[in-house]
Amino acid sequence: MKNKAFLLGLLSIGFFATSCSSDDNEGETIIPLQGKYNLRQTGTIVGGQEVLIDAPANQSGCPMDYLDLRLSNAAVYGDYNGSECALTESTGTYVRSHNDLTLTINGITTTSDIMNLTNKELKLKDKTTGAITVYSR
Questions:
Q1: Would the keyword Cell membrane be found if you checked this record's keyword annotation (predicted)?
Q2: Side-chain half-sphere exposure of 132, counting CA atoms within 13 A
C-alpha cells in the first residue's frame, strides 16, 4: 500500500504543471529550487484547461505528503500512511537543468517541466505522462 501511495506521489510529481515568467532570464525562474514542498494537488490538462484535484495520495487526518529537495541534490519523498500517520521516507536524487527537473527515487526516474516556481509553489508537468503535480512551501 505504501509503495502504491509512493508511486502515486511520483506520478503526481509528473502531472504537476507549472509556468515560469518570461523575462530577462529567457523564461527560466531564478527562485531557488531547494526546499520542502507539501503535496497539494494533482491533475492533468483536459481540452486545454488544467483540471486539478486535492492529492489523493494525502491520507485524511495526516500531514500532507512532501517532497524535500536539498542543497546536496538529495531528494526525499515523505509519505504519511495508516491510522497512526506513520511516515515513510524514500530517498534519491534530483537534477535541475534549466526548467527541467529529473527525480530519481527508489530507482524510478521521472523528468518534469518546472512550469511554476515561486516562494510558495512548485508546479510540475511530467514530460512523459502529462500529469500535473502542485506543491506548496
A1: no
A2: 21
Average pLDDT, the chain: 84
Joined grid coordinates for residue 13 = 510529481
Q: Is 8 exposed, middle or buried (0-12, 13-18, 19+ CB in 10 A)?
A: middle
Q: d(Cα 102, Cα 47) in Å, to the nearest integer?
A: 27
Per the DSSP assignment, residues forming a β-bridge with 49 are 46
Q: Is 25 exposed, middle or buried (0-12, 13-18, 19+ CB in 10 A)?
A: exposed
Q: What digits encode the pLDDT tens for the residues 6-25?
A: 444 544 444 333 334 334 44
Sign of the CA dihedral running 46, 108, 34, 58: positive
Instruction: Give the pLDDT band (50/70/90) at residue 31.
Output: confident
- Rounded to whole angstroms, the Cα distance separating 55 from 60 reads 10
